[in-house]
DNA sequence: AGGCCGACTGTAAACGTTTACCGTTTCCGA
DNA sequence: TCGGAAACGGTAAACGTTTACAGTCGGCCT
């Protein structure tokens, strides 16, 4: 744990100036002999450049941030899996921020942009407050937001048409002959919660089905509470014949409950989730789910950010990923073992 | 995106020297009037300290690294979930490294320690080569290794007794009356692969069961290839009555295959996995799995590292987490609905 | 009243790089 | 042989902090 060698150490040993050392190490044109001396000195000393000094001078950290509510959620995981390699290949390190479903935490991360420890940020805010918008506008580094932001917000944006996603699912259930389609949602004051709530009502209306408040239950976006919410709904609505869940985790909780209540899926109750995470293929029965293209969104966000980091100076861009219904046994149910 | 304010800007505006600004911002004793002027100037300018400059001077980055083979693996995810909050609470950011099951990549990460962009590192190497050991010894920042390292390696180490874990599973299957216990392993040149392979043989011997090479199949540690490996094994050994899988992902692949082959689990073939990830409770039937305490290992590693970062200068410590068998329907099978 | 002490504050150096600028050397053509 | 251009290398400044050191100022003791 001794103090490491610096370019000064190398310069002394190679008998040249620190400027030459720097030039050699950065591949600028240099006489062969100088280069040789510097390189061998560097190698012998086991020199590694100091990133703080480099960042200070160059004003780039070669790091990018990814901020999401909770690393435990498989949706975010699917995104990280796409994002990480993109930045790794481009020479950036990934700094992770799990904001614990806490808007203040998100603001902290945005404030952190000013510290310049990251050159750019991909964020998935759960809610977009006025404070968020102010910080987007004032940000001194490029930001890409996954999720919807108001028109004219000066950041690149990757979104999915979750309205359409909900509609796909509701139509699917309707086509299967289901008429009492319940909906288990997450908190209404989150971006996805609000969007899915509105979309559910719309979709019913488009199909000429009545909107029955009894058919809607709100919990959070996780499996245990999702299960409890589903249980409340099931108890309240005995003739329920389908259940749409605002994400896959909720759907898994619902499947647990339905199994416990000995309601057969999909014969008695068809179940559909959203996000089409890996979990959907693991569940039993395998879960019909609306893919919101998490992987694609992650990749798109990474590419937008990389583009900015490479100096692209263009108007903010909005990329929309189309939702896609993936049907499996929880609604189509050929074989339930 | 204008250039941000620095302490110089603040100093000018407040009419004091940069030293005073720095002192105020760091809470060193200052006359009330000066403090007031500096604080309000800082607030008006929206000052945020530059982390590169701070790191350069203070020689700490307030970042720690976590390096694992692949973020997609739920075991690592369980660890991150424990590690992240520990460091967040202590004021450190988490830098993620996914090394793609590539030893050279791991070495790169270790070399990166010299860049001083992280103050410490938690790593889960898939194999520990001589080069790893050299770099551990030469490292200029504390390292915690999750997984086994040779005696005397100068790093903190968190391990689990996977030998014992395998034994627990084999004994369990044996107690259930199974005698043809197959084993689907990952690559033998990885730390876990090698350990589990040896442990399987040992466990059989302890129980007086013969070691039959036909009962062992090697693939990788993921679901698709795990499934294929399981398929090869099943085809080769018609009287198979139990299948131990080296991790849960492999077990999921095996379950897929068994379902396709219409072999009933656990009636015909009992299946057990290892790691006891979230997936085990999701699988159908729910998967008996040996918990290797991923969460505990993550937390222990984080705490060991934090201890070092807080200046603890002590001999390398080894923390061992006890494995624990978690039985579920894939071996005990009361109700397979 | 002079000297001293304590409480602040300012000056300047340092952290390890990159890079603008300028001086030196080399080489070529006339 | 000499002039000048090209190629290279060194000096020093700069990035934004922290901090050792020295200076200033007021007040108190003798």
Give the topology, please.
2 copies of one chain form a homodimer.
Chain A: H1 7-14, H2 18-25, H3 32-45, H4 51-58, E1 63-68, H5 74-89, E2 93-98, H6 103-112, E3 120-123, H7 130-138, E4 143-146, E5 156-160, H8 162-175, E6 181-185, H9 191-206, E7 216-218, H10 223-236, E8 242-245, H11 248-260, E9 270-274, H12 278-282, E10 288-291, H13 294-309, E11 318-321, E12 324-326, H14 329-332
Parallel strand pairs in A: 1-2, 1-3, 3-4, 4-5, 5-11, 6-7, 6-8, 8-9, 9-10
Antiparallel strand pairs in A: 10-12
Helix pairs in contact in A: 1-2, 1-3, 2-3, 5-13, 6-7, 8-9, 10-11
The structure holds a DNA duplex (30 and 30 nucleotides).
Protein name (chains A, B): LacI family DNA-binding transcriptional regulator
Organism (chains A, B): Sphaerisporangium flaviroseum
Keywords (chains A, B): DNA-binding, Transcription, Transcription regulation
What's the helix count of chain A?
A: 14
Q: Find the biggest chain interface.
A: A-B, 44 and 46 residues
Largest sheet of chain A: 6 strands, parallel
Enumerate the strands of the largest sheet of chain A in spatial order, edge to edge or round the barrel.
Answer: 2-1-3-4-5-11
Given helix and strand content, the structural type of chain A is alpha/beta
Instruction: Give the CA-CA distance, first to last residue of chain A.
Output: 60 Å
Listing every helix as H and every strand as E from the N terminus to the C terminus, the arrangement of chain A reads HHHHEHEHEHEEHEHEHEHEHEHEEH
What are the segments of chain A in which pLDDT stays under 50 over at least 5 consecutive residues? none
The number of distinct β-strands of chain A equals 12
């Amino acid at each position: 744990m001794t103090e490491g060698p610096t370019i000064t150490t190398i310069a002394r040993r190679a008998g040249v100036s620190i400027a030459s050392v720097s030039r050699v190490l950065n591949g600028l044109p240099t006489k062969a002999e100088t280069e040789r001396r510097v390189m061998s000195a560097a190698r012998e000393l086991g020199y590694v450049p100091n990133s703080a000094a480099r960042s200070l001078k160059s004003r780039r950290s070669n790091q990018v941030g990814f901020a999401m509510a909770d690393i435990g959620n498989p949706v975010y995981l699917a995104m990280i899996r796409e994002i990480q390699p993109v930045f790794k290949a481009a020479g950036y390190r990934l700094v992770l921020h799990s904001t614990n479903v806490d808007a203040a935490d998100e603001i902290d991360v945005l404030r952190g942009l000013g510290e310049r420890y990251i050159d750019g940020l991909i964020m998935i805010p759960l809610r977009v407050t006025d404070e968020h918008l102010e910080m987007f506008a004032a940000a001194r580094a490029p930001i890409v937001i996954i999720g919807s932001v108001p028109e004219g917000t000066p950041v690149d944006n990757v979104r999915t048409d979750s309205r359409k996603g909900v509609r796909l699912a509701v139509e699917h259930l309707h086509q299967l002959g289901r008429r009492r389609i319940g909906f288990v949602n997450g908190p209404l004051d989150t971006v996805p919660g609000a969007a899915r709530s509105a979309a559910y009502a719309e979709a019913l209306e488009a199909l000429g089905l009545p909107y029955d408040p009894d058919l809607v239950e709100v919990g959070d976006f996780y499996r245990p509470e999702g299960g409890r919410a589903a249980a409340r709904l099931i108890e309240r609505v005995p003739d329920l014949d389908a259940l749409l869940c605002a994400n896959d985790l909720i759907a898994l909780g619902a499947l647990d409950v339905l199994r416990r209540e000995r309601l057969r899926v999909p014969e008695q109750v068809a179940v559909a989730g959203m996000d089409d995470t890996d979990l959907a293929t693991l569940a039993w029965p395998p879960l019909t789910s609306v893919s919101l293209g998490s992987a694609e969104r992650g990749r798109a966000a990474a590419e937008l950010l990389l583009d900015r980091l490479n100096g692209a100076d263009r108007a903010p861009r909005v990329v929309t990923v189309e939702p896609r219904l993936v049907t499996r046994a929880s609604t189509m149910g050929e074989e339930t073992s």
